[in-house]
Design goal:
With about 180 residues, this protein is of the alpha+beta class. Helices cover about 40% and strands about 25% of the residues. The chain contains 4 helices and 7 strands; from the N terminus they run βββββββαααα. β1 and β2 form a beta hairpin. α1 packs antiparallel against α2, α1 packs parallel to α3 and α2 runs antiparallel to α3. The protein starts with 6 loop residues before the first strand and ends with a helix.
């Protein structure tokens, strides 16, 4: 059996951390395991990677902030490449999209929905709007997982725009969509 490298990006449900679990099968002890992470808008960083463990990175470890300062990690498409020595020809790479900041905004909007005092049609229209936004977020994740970066970025931008409009009250929540389609 040969060494087979793999990793999983695990949701931490936190804008401050990026979690990556090693899912590799090793023959022997891997030498010099490292992960290269391309953060959107920043330079690539090459970091030590602990095999057979759950590795957590933050803004300081990614070189985005000073040591000891823990800022939110940006949303966007990330490129990850895990490799081991001696030649670093044994590697696995993936692209993913972080949506934690957008998801945090979505969660806040969703929680507002239960506190809104409005009639059934408007409340139902708000649910339809939030479902549409969630659909775009999940579409961005699926596109990034399948290396469709342009599509992932477009879907993310659309979800962000829709969410901004929703939280401003500009979602067009007159209830007409509900009345037309569901009543």
């Amino acid at each position: 059996m040969a060494t087979k490298l793999d990793f999983l990006v695990v949701p931490t449900y936190n804008t401050l951390t990026l979690g990556i679990a090693d899912a590799s099968i090793y023959v022997g002890v891997p030498a010099s395991p490292s992960i290269e992470i391309s953060v959107p808008g920043f330079s690539k960083v090459n970091l030590p990677f602990v095999p057979n463990d759950f590795n957590i990175f933050n803004s300081a470890s990614l070189g985005l902030s000073d040591p000891g300062v823990n800022n939110p990690i940006p949303d966007g498409v990330y490129y990850l490449k895990y490799s081991i020595a001696p030649s670093f020809e044994n590697y696995v790479e993936k692209s993913i999209i972080r949506v934690e900041q957008l998801q945090e905004r979505f969660d806040a909007a969703f929680m507002q929905l239960d506190m809104m005092e409005c009639d059934l049609a408007i409340k139902t229209q708000s649910k339809v709007e939030l479902n549409s936004i969630y659909f775009f977020i999940q579409g961005a994740v699926a596109a990034a997982n399948n290396c469709a970066v342009d599509t992932a970025n477009k879907l993310y931008a659309q979800a962000s725009k829709m969410l901004t409009n929703f939280t401003r009250g500009d979602c067009g929540c007159s209830g007409n969509n509900y009345i037309t389609n569901f009543y």
